[in-house]
Structure formats: C-alpha cells, structure tokens
Amino acid sequence: MTQQTQRRIASLQRTLLALPPLTKRGLLASHDMVCVAVALWAAFELRWLGTPAHPEGLFGAPTSYPWLFVMVMAACVPVFWTFGLYRQVLRYIGMHALRQVLVGSAVLSLVVALSTLWLQLTGVPRSVPVIFFVLVTGAVGLSRLAMRRLLGTQPGRHRLPVIIWGAGEAGMQLAQAMHCSAHHVPVACIDDDPLFQDRTMQQLRCHAPSMLPKLIQRHQASMVVLAMPSISRAQRRDIIKRLQPYNIAVKTLPPLGDLLAGRSDVVDLQDVPVSDLLGRQEVPAERALLQQSINDRVVLVTGAGGSIGTELVRQISRLQPTRLVLLERDEFSLYDIERELRTSPRTSNIEVVPLLGSAGDRALVRRLFEAWDIDVVYHAAAYKHVPIVEENVVAGVQNNVIATWITATEAARAGVGTFILVSTDKAVRPTNVMGATKRMAELVLQALQTRDDVTTKFSMVRFGNVLGSSGSVVPLFKEQIARGGPVTVTHAEVIRYFMTIEEAAKLVLQTSALATGGDVFLLDMGDPVRIHDLAERMIHLSGHTIKSDDNPGGDIEIEIVGLRPGEKLYEELLIDCDAKGTTHPRILRGEEDVTAWHDLETAIDALRRACTSGDCAAIRQVLQASVAGYTPAADIHDATWRQRTFRIQHSDDGPPPLADVRLDSDDTSPPLAKVP
C-alpha cells in the first residue's frame, strides 16, 4: 500500500469517525435498504436465470413486482433496529452482531414470503425468499465486517506484530481486540494442544510451539503474549523457559481472578511476573494456622505502611480480626493502606485504627497498648536498605534496635499474647549495620523471653529478599532496561534467596500459631538465585539482546559495579545450629544462644547514649561486642560522622569531648508490671 493510499484511507477514517451518531445510523440504514433491494433483485435473477419465465430483461423483477420491493425495503430498517443492529459500534463488531444479521435476514425473508401472499403475486417462485435470505445475510454481514476492518486499522501507523500463545477463549478474545488495536497486530497463534494446531481462528493460523523460530523470523514478531490466565505457575514457567533463547518480549494476560471480577481486560497486558523466573513453586498457606493466628483477635502491625507491613495488613484483614491497629510514621503510607481497607468490599467491615507515629516513641506505644488490648503484634517497622543504613548509623540503630526494645518491653508490660519480629537473613554473621541491628533486635526478644515475669511469647522470623518490596533489585533492573541500560550488578557471583511478598506475609502470619516463645523461625526460600542470571533473563524477556565482548552489537550491557559497603556475596539463615522442622513444610525452627537480660540492658543503654551523642564508633563497639560474627567494614560510612570527624581533625581548637547526656526518667526502661 502506497503512502498516498494510506493517507486517503486515513482521511476517510477520520471523516467517518467524526460523523454524528444519528448521521452514521442514517447512512447504515440507507446502505441496508440498498442491500435488501439488490439482494431481492438478485434472488429473482438467480431463480429465473436460464428459464423461459425471465421477463423484460435485467429489471424484470422490480418492474413486475414493485410493491414487493417497496414493502421489503420499508421493513428492513425497523427489523434490523428491533434486533439491535444499529446499536453496534462498527470498529468492535463481533459474532453477536452477525447473529443479529442472521435473525434479521430470516425475518425479512418471512416478510417476502408473506408479502407475496398478501399481494397475491402468483408468479413469484417459492425459492426466492430462501435465495434472498442467503444474499441479504452475506451483503449486510460482509459489509459490516469490511467496515470493521476499515475503521479498526490505523494506516500509516506501524503496528507491532504479536504472536499469541494460547488458542483458548482468552487467546481468541485477545486476537479480536488486537485486530482493532492501534499499536499491535496478531500475526500467528501457538498452542501445545494438537486439537488447535493447523486450524484458523480469528483470522490466525494456529501452530505448534516448534514453529516459533520460523514464525518470529517470517513475521518479524516483536512480542509473544501468554494468553492462558488459568494455567499453573509451573506451566507458565516452563513456557517462559522455552521463550528465553529468542530475545523476544514476553507479556501475559492479567490473573484470571482480575479478569472474572472485571478489574482487568484481556488487552491489559502485563510483564511476566518475576516470580516465574525464579524456579520455585509457591507453597500454599495452611488455612488453619492463619485462622488460629488472627481470627477474633486484636492485631497490631507496626510499620504498617511499608512494603512488608502493607502486605501483612492486607492478609490479616481477610482473616476477620476483631480489630486491626496500624502504626506508621509516614502519613501518606498510613492514609493509603487505611483507605484501601475501608474501600475494599472484603475488608470494609473490619474495624481499622490508623495511628500516626513511631514505634520508638515510648509514650505513644504505652498509650496504644493501654487503649486497645492488643493480642498479637507483628513488628515490621525497620530500616532495611543496606547502603542507606550504612550511611545513617544512628537512625538505623534507633529504628531497628531501640524501637524494637521499646515496643517489645511495652508489649510484655501490657501482657500481649504473641509478639512476632520480622527479621532478615542479613542478621546472620552480618557485615553491615543493618544486619547487625536486626540481630540486636532479635537478641532483645530472646533476652526478654528469659524473664520469669514475662508471659508474652516473643518470636522472630528470618527470610531473604522479597520480590516487590521497596528497594528490591527487580524494579531497579526494570527501570534500567527501560532506559536502555546498562543493568548494574554488584558482583558476577552474588546470589540471593527470593520469595514473593504475598508468600512471605502468609508464612510470617502462620509462625504466630507455631510460636512457643524465644523461637527463631526460618522460612525455606528454595534454591538461591544468581543475580547475574536474573538480569540476563529479564533482558531476554524484554525483547533485547545482551551487549558483551562476544556480542558487541547487543542492546543492553550488564555492568559489574562492585560490592557495596557491608554487602556479602551470599546470605545465611542460621548462625551455628541446625534447624528443626515444624508442622508447616516451609517453616523451620532454630535454637540459638541467648544473651542474659541484664547484659542486654547494659548494651541497650550504651547504644542509646551513643545515639544521643552521635558517636558511631561507640555504636560499632557495642554491636561488635553483642552480635556474634559481626565483621564490619574497616571504615565507618556514616555521612554525618565522617564529615564531623573531618572537621574536628582539621580544627585548630582540637576535638571537643562527646557529651555525656543524661537520660530523662521517662526514657528509661520501665518495669514490666502491668499497669493497674
């Protein structure tokens, strides 16, 4: 098609689409009347062809039976209007409209037959209504399909050729929608089922998967869409693995639940979930454990607006707690999750209490426990970004250690039933401040559990990286790929454990039903994933090639930037003991050495004093003395500490002494006795 022809078609499209609705319907009605007249004339011509009864040449029928033509043409528009044919949008017309054409044509054929009887037209052959039905159905139906083709395409605009994997109902709906798309055009269909292969559906030939390389080359396809929303994750993962070598973008339909609920449409294409690239099957939750933990209880979630906290809140709200208390220091995050709970039909009947503030504010936390009779606490409030905490040591200690100590002691003082700390695998033999502070938070709970006057069951849950959490490597890789690279990997051999945020939250909730006090729960995260391999898979499935020494003409380069301060090549879940199984196949229990409460109180007091004076060196000394295996970097990376130290060293007056700040009486550790 030449550019001039494309411009003319585009101009015609714009003219037709700009017409008022009544004008469009008027044109269609006039078109249908002409089609009916021509079909009736052709029916007579075909019946009389080659017979002596053919009168008066080409226009014998109209001149012999003029009133028959008038009556059929007059009935045409009311009949098609009655069956809704003029309410259809031509660009998106489908099989339902063709059924309307069939029924309308049948009624018009009946009108022809009855009119011949009423007008007493004895010379009309009885086969004319049948021939008329066939002709008018073809004329009206095919003309509408032609109009859909004309108005649904976008001449002059390049549409990306797409191969649809899946010849079922969802795949055919997607193909029909894409035929009218301005951006994509379906060129072929792939399906593993031999029943679909070598058949044509929605103008697409269905092929076996072995034909994929030839189809990509023949059609210059740029994308494969997985149109099978009901298949299992294992099946989808197998298909993705087969697609990886072809450097073609892979998209998928929304989840089946979203399609059935009307929250998404088949044309709302999504990226392949990264969980499908990790090679691990999600273990379904045990409903009994979830119900036992939450149902008919008052639950507190600290850090409720964070990535883990938000998912915990969503999962808890579906388990019908008596009350759900949300503690969050960020106003917008608290507003966002509270609004979500109140507007969702599934959780709108839950009593939600949004509290704005920090878990490190003892007065606020004490008032909270006194007011709401909390049964279960999920302590998710923490700073977890390794480089950021490494450069903000004081804030990391205050939020990860002191806030945990305050919340836990107040929970024990109020007689809370269960307290679960959301921890991390970086707490095991840490090399960074974040990991050391999380291990220190674990020690707080373990030491509290040794006290005779404590009835609360304190437990902690360790797991690795969570897909979809803030700071996850996956969103970073997506952003870098969208920019055209490079994709930055800290080390070629770095490995990490991954699980989805939904699975992690469910496992955390189930641990509270297994808690006996002082437990260290470990989540079985499957096999570790090499981050470099994950980057390669994401580049391939985005439709790009990797730029390297072997392939200098590739699209996106993977750049090794070196390990960040405090980062390790691999993470562990245990310190020095073996894990024991529980009733859940993916939840293990570890038993580790515990610090005495008196020694821990001394360390906490030293940390608080060092935080007040901003003494990062003292903080490091306390953490090294308290956390087994903590091997920090040679230098302290806290930005304020480094700048302050630099100025002191270059000051003529010499370094000022660090202030020995007295703590207010309200800020000291209170007795754990319950408030009367």
List keywords for this structure.
single chain, 676 residues, alpha/beta, Rossmann fold, 3 domains, nine-stranded mixed β-sheet, seven-stranded mixed β-sheet, 23 helices
Structural notes for this entry:
The structure is a single chain. Helices cover 46% and strands 14% of the residues. It has 676 residues and is α/β, with parallel strands linked by helices. It has 3 domains: 3-152, no CATH class; 160-272, NAD(P)-binding Rossmann-like Domain (Rossmann fold, 3-Layer(aba) Sandwich); 287-464 and 499-525 and 572-590, Rossmann fold (3-Layer(aba) Sandwich), CATH 3.40.50. Strands 10-9-8-11-12-13-18-23-22 form a 9-stranded mixed sheet, sandwiched between helices. A 7-stranded mixed sheet has the order 3-4-2-1-5-6-7, sandwiched between helices. A 3-stranded parallel sheet has the order 15-21-20. Helix 17 crosses helix 22 and helix 21 runs antiparallel to helix 22 (616-626). The longest helix is centred in the N-terminal third of the chain and has 28 residues, at 21-48. The chain is elongated and about 115 Å long.
